[in-house]
Amino acid sequence: MEILGDLGLGLSVVLSPLNLAWCLTGVLLGTLIGVLPGLGPAATIAMLLPATFGLPAVSSLIMLAGIYYGAQYGGSTTAILINLPGETSSVVTALDGYQMARKGRAGAALATAAIGSFVAGTVATAVVAFLAPPLADVALNFGAAEYFALMVLGLVASVALARGPVLKAVAMVVLGLLLGTIGTDINSGEQRFTFDIPELADGINFVALAMGMFGIAEILTNLDHEATRKPLTRVIGSLLPNREECRRIIGPILRGTGLGSVLGILPGGGAVLGAFAAYAVEKKISKTPQAFGHGAIEGVAAPESANNAGAQTSFIPMLTLGIPSNPVMALMVGALTIQGIQPGPQVMSEQPELFWGVIASMWIGNLMLIVLNLPLIGLWVRLLTIPYRLLYPAILVFCCVGVLSLNNLASDVYLMILFGLVGYVLVRLDCEPAPLLLGFILGPMMEEYLRRAMILARGDMTTFVTRPISLALLLLTLAIILVLTLPRVRAKREEAFEEAA
Amino acid sequence: MPGTLGRGSPRDIAAGALFVVIGCAFGWFAQDHDLGTPNRMGPAFFPTILAVMMTVLGTVILVQGLRRPGEPIGRWPWRAMLLVLGPGILFGLTIRPLGMIAAVPLLVGLSALASRQVTAVGLILSALVLTLFSIAVFAHGLGLPIPVFGRLLGG
């Protein structure tokens, strides 16, 4: 049982007092900020990234992971209490969670979300621990062509699962890739698209881009809807689900965990897809489907378990292949790169403490969440009452100071503001920013793998289809594109996202 | 701006046009560099492929937007945009010469005006609290190299 030894190593890393403290800080900060209306996990992580750069790589990743599930959980709290999902994955939770809250069962809904998340977190941690090592072993044999094909697949899949029009999502990926080419070309040393601005020589600062697109642009979007804030539920009710409710949530939690774990591994997956699928499944197999949307506790338990399981298993492609499957993972890859670690299959063998430490911290983090959050619900409710007009100037201060502290360059502040403007304009034109961020992160890697694959094949483009693994990955990509263009699938996909909106 | 073209989708038309402009711009400036060959990709190789893709995608989105109806873009919230983005730029300009003691209250005070529900008490209190918080946490607590008093204020 080598895996037990590895997990033991991971636990010994997490259980060091310092790392425990960082995990706790991450979970607390994540929940705290995630609870604040209008701040999702991506914005929360982008905002707190600079705070983690001073830490050792392991601690920084443990803290970021803690922030991720903290924010995820905080998002569910706002979804249930004020019907304002902080992120896409808790959109489904809001459907029944808010109805439960209106019937005075907010406490039970929150507890169900917490219990479901914990069960899902435990199972998903095990899934990650078992699946990641073999996958990393496979990936170690990948050549440049395979990596390039894999990245194409990842980007296309992320488009398939993004909200909004497919073509625009593809365009956003390409725009992200283009932005990634700005700066010094590592091969020739030539400066591309920098217009002799010295601050651009190292490329666009990825934290400035992420903070602008997710932090600043969201402020403008939220200000658009300022007048339409929904009333807060003040009555929390009993925290514990009653016996009948306990019986009813077991099945949905287990099914949600399973679905979420599987769907989270897919490139482009993560928390969102699992939550939607789990809700749909529960509604389909329920004897009382008409109760869904009117406060069915199954409609809270299943998506909450699924989104937490998916959030966790989405670490698998990031940890083993170095390929982010969603914007949050893209931020993690960025954080690792800034720490001087090239994410990829070699991380497991070269940095076992980091690899297993992060995996073990997932379970510890989830344990902290449930232990902390149930007693702290009263505090979170009070935070929810902070009006947005007091909140967003604080977000601005954090973003400005945070991005400035990276390199001590005022130009990073200007860049962040510029991307805030660009991000807002694009959102107004129905272009989601998430695919852009993935493209931006993967762009430089893709160019390098393409170059290497081409050199190895002496410029022969067919190398991508003559190597079996690369061919399989590209065929899979093609299949996704074909399926996406089928009119029936397109209608269904739009329907699925519509239902949530 | 409801339905400027009668039919057509303003959001798609604008997005498509934007992508075409961006694609052309990258394609244009990529020509400053060597294209190379597939065997030895030059610095312009990858960006040129992408720029072409961007332009084609933009054109398709634009043409589709002309053909099928869509929602209007809606009014731009100029006031909010100016009062959120402007103070951010101002922060970048003032942080070195004046330091946090002036840059933070300027940022908070001006950006707070972007909300239609702003109150004088809320504005002054949050400016005060956030300035004190920034100085205590960012400068003293975390020791970030960001001046409290800028060089014009004797820092």
Considering the chains and any ligands shown, give keywords for the structure.
heterodimer; A: 501 residues; mainly alpha; two-stranded antiparallel ribbon; 2 strands; B: 155 residues; 5 helices; flat
Number of β-strand runs of chain A: 2
- Give the DSSP E fraction of chain A (strand runs of 2 or more residues): under 5%
Radius of gyration of chain A: 22 Å
Radius of gyration of chain B: 24 Å
What topology does this entry show?
The complex is a heterodimer of chains A (501) and B (155).
Chain A: H1 2-14, H2 17-35, H3 41-52, H4 57-82, H5 91-102, H6 106-140, H7 144-161, H8 166-180, E1 183-184, E2 191-192, H9 206-224, H10 243-265, H11 271-285, H12 298-313, H13 315-321, H14 327-338, H15 346-350, H16 352-384, H17 388-407, H18 410-428, H19 434-456, H20 463-466, H21 468-485, H22 487-500
Antiparallel strand pairs in A: 1-2
Helix pairs in contact in A: 1-16, 2-4, 2-16, 3-4, 3-9, 3-14, 3-17, 4-5, 4-6, 4-12, 4-14, 4-16, 5-6, 5-12, 6-10, 6-12, 6-13, 6-16, 7-8, 7-19, 7-21, 8-19, 9-17, 9-18, 10-11, 10-12, 11-12, 14-19, 17-18
Chain B: H1 10-30, H2 45-67, H3 78-98, H4 100-112, H5 120-141
Short description:
The complex is a heterodimer of chains A (501) and B (155). Chain A has helices spanning 2-14, 17-35, 41-52, 57-82, 91-102, 106-140, 144-161, 166-180, 206-224, 243-265, 271-285, 298-313, 315-321, 327-338, 346-350, 352-384, 388-407, 410-428, 434-456, 463-466, 468-485, 487-500, and strands spanning 183-184, 191-192. By secondary structure, chain A is an all-alpha fold.
